[in-house]
């Protein structure tokens, strides 16, 4: 593979990243080619040592998504991190996506239940005293407040679980990236052996 083809495919895979980040990444890989050619290696050898540019772009996008999540910690960054992790490969998607969708669906269901419980508690607190509940109006108000407090607690716990889930996905992406990184970069032993 030539330098131009490698960089073209890498740029295409980095679409969606901030322009400056993508430009820095491409510049780094141009430097790899410059250094390799200066060391007497062909463009094809440098490209082979760097690995598949499409896979490399997916891993770099996953790393960028993970960094954004650690910096911002908001739903948009969480979604970017999740999609970046899922973009790592088809095998990961086939294994991780069904599990992830089940967990996300369960968390979403509990969030909806917590919202419904909160509003039910508010309705009991407001309308209960006028409905002559057992224990009197004070019992209805306290019961309504209890339902609202329980809903708030459930929602807070679900938020913590959601953060743990995203952190777990980010950890998975980084582990995946670290395991593949040696295959993507030329090893120092090859470089030192060639120079000896």
UniProtKB/TrEMBL annotation:
<feature type="transmembrane region" description="Helical">
    <location>
        <begin position="77"/>
        <end position="101"/>
    </location>
</feature>
<protein>
    <recommendedName>
        <fullName>DUF1700 domain-containing protein</fullName>
    </recommendedName>
</protein>
<keyword id="KW-0472">Membrane</keyword>
<keyword id="KW-1133">Transmembrane helix</keyword>
<dbReference type="Pfam" id="PF22564">
    <property type="entry name" value="HAAS"/>
</dbReference>
<keyword id="KW-0812">Transmembrane</keyword>
<feature type="transmembrane region" description="Helical">
    <location>
        <begin position="107"/>
        <end position="127"/>
    </location>
</feature>
<feature type="transmembrane region" description="Helical">
    <location>
        <begin position="139"/>
        <end position="166"/>
    </location>
</feature>
């Amino acid at each position: 593979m030539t330098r131009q083809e490698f960089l073209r495919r890498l740029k295409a895979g980095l679409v969606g990243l901030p322009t400056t980040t993508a430009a820095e990444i491409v510049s780094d890989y141009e430097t790899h080619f410059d250094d390799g050619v200066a060391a007497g290696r062909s463009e094809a050898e440098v490209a082979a040592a760097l690995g598949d540019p499409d896979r490399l772009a997916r891993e770099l996008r996953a790393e960028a998504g993970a960094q954004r999540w650690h910096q911002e910690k908001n739903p948009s960054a969480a979604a970017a991190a999740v999609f970046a992790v899922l973009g790592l490969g088809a095998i990961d998607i086939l294994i991780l996506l069904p599990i992830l969708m089940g967990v996300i669906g369960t968390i979403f269901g509990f969030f909806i239940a917590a919202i419904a419980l909160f509003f039910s508690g508010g309705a009991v607190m407001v309308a209960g005293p006028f409905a002559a509940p057992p224990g009197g109006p004070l019992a209805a108000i306290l019961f309504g407040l209890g339902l609202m407090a329980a809903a708030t607690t459930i929602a807070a716990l679900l938020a913590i679980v959601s953060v743990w889930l995203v952190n777990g996905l980010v950890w998975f992406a980084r582990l995946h990236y670290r395991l593949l990184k040696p295959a993507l970069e030329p090893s120092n032993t090859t470089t030192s052996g060639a120079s000896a």
